[in-house]
Amino acid sequence: MVNVGILGDVSVGKTTILRLFVKFIEQGMLEKKFKLNECSIVKTDFSGEATLPSKSASKETKTIHPNRVVFQIGDKMHTLFAPGGDNRPLVRMGIVTVSRIARLIIAVFDLNKDLDSQFNFYDKIRFIPKKIHVALNKADLIKDLNKKVDDYKKRIEKYFKEKRKIAVEETYVTVAESIEGFEDHNDKCAKMIVTLVS
Ligand SMILES: Nc1nc2c(ncn2[C@@H]2O[C@H](COP(=O)(O)OP(=O)(O)OP(=O)(O)O)[C@@H](O)[C@H]2O)c(=O)[nH]1
Ligand SMILES: [Mg+2]
Q1: What is the CATH number of domain 2-47+62-197?
Q2: I need a surface site. Which of 3, 98, 124, 128 has the fewest CB within 10 A?
């Protein structure tokens, strides 16, 4: 049983990563693509998702209470937790809880957003395991992807090493949203989770 915490600043795509993974399992894609034993969803909880009052017409939702997906590969059960990234006290409670109960952490970054504001999110979390994994998400929105990935990867590793004494074990470049032409990056996103729990 592995608990995986998916953390990151607001709107980087944590909930979308969870939904993509659920879709992969429900459509039998995990077994097919990664030659795994039988995979199944045990339980999902997306009830902490809410459309917040906002001035814009956007229908985008935010995670208030952590989303949770319990799944099984073969006879092993695992749980993914994705708290919201917002700064509201109620949302922050979820972040603190998840950062303490998860043995494995995926720190998700939005490649299309400035890095310093995203580091700010981690500055506020006291406890993070000494080794983490990084997902650079929204790769579909970036033109010169290799250059951007190199730059973000270096700066993220430096931030965690120097400021937090945390080692980045692996960096994955992902697209969590189902977007035509980026199926390979969807696969990488699902593979990241499979690799972590294996
Ligand atoms: N283009 C693109 N959009 C994405 C990707 N992943 C997520 N999004 C979009 O980004 C927005 C925020 O996604 P969420 O999954 O709700 O982000 P979150 O990190 O869970 O947000 P909070 O829980 O509120 O912190 C949504 O409009 C998603 O459709 C991606 O890989 N590419
Ligand atoms: Mg969310």
Answers
A1: 3.40.50.300
A2: 124
